[in-house]
Amino acid sequence: IKSYHFHSSQMPASIQFGVEFEGFTALKTPYPKNISELSDLFKQEGLGSMASLNPRASTGYKVWNITIDGSIITARDFIGRHKTHDLVVQDSPGMEIVSPILAGAEGHAEMMKAVEALEKVKFKSNETCGMHMHIGIKHLDFEQQKNLALAICRNEDELDKLLSPERQDDNNKFATSLKGIDNLEDSITAATTVEELVEAVNPGKNRYSKYDLTGLVLPAAPPTIQYRGAGGANYLPTAGAHAIIIGNFTDQALKNPDVKLENVISELVTHCHKLAHAHAKKPHAARHHAAPALH
Fold this sequence. Notes:
Blueprint (H helix, E strand, L loop, with lengths): L15 E8 L9 H12 L4 E3 L12 E6 L5 H7 L12 E5 L3 E2 H17 L10 E6 L5 H19 L23 H7 L3 H8 L9 E2 L11 E4 L11 H15 L7 H20 L3 H6 L6
Parallel strand pairs: 2-3
Antiparallel strand pairs: 1-4, 1-5, 1-6, 3-4, 6-8, 7-8
């Protein structure tokens, strides 16, 4: 995925989404003041933001929420276990940066502003950190939801190729594979209610799957599919491309359960080349004032 560079305009307008970034920063300010300092930086970058020591604090998904994440192994503990990793050493808990509800190209551009802000503070991650992407699907009809579940099932091997090795297959207990579920395609096809569909994909309402549909039935949960597979060591540079690929795959899968991820990516790459070519043909002054943001 590191070889892909896409334009924010390639995020489908119909895709409403949110992201969660888990990791650490190199801010020298001690915890918990570093949470507030990062929130202030977001505000300086024109991003609505709040800081909270309570990860369950509600923002109504209207602003970026800078909070803590106790599921992350601290950098100091992690380095003690894995001597080869060059990570920021700090005793503060890991951070989670939760986006507001975003949509289409403008939403992706805002996400990339957040990524750039995190890069300014040397945001780092390790194998215990994830990038989760939510896409709203509750408002869609049941057949579309089933189409998406089938497409994911049929493309899991290809989807895994977008992930770091430690998050592929069944290597991460917080992002488990669908491959161990018996007769999954048959169960999805046979489902006649949302509850049956969720039970097929996430047995026992297990939300620690790479493809979490439990938000469709659990009270107070975001009514989304949650893609939990991305993340791992230093994932931030690939966040923009990952979001574009998953957004386009979801958009097509809702309509066609036989969509192939490799075709989605090929179409994105071709379109991106056309955008770059069209930009290169513009007069120099126009290019200077309207350079495309490739992510």
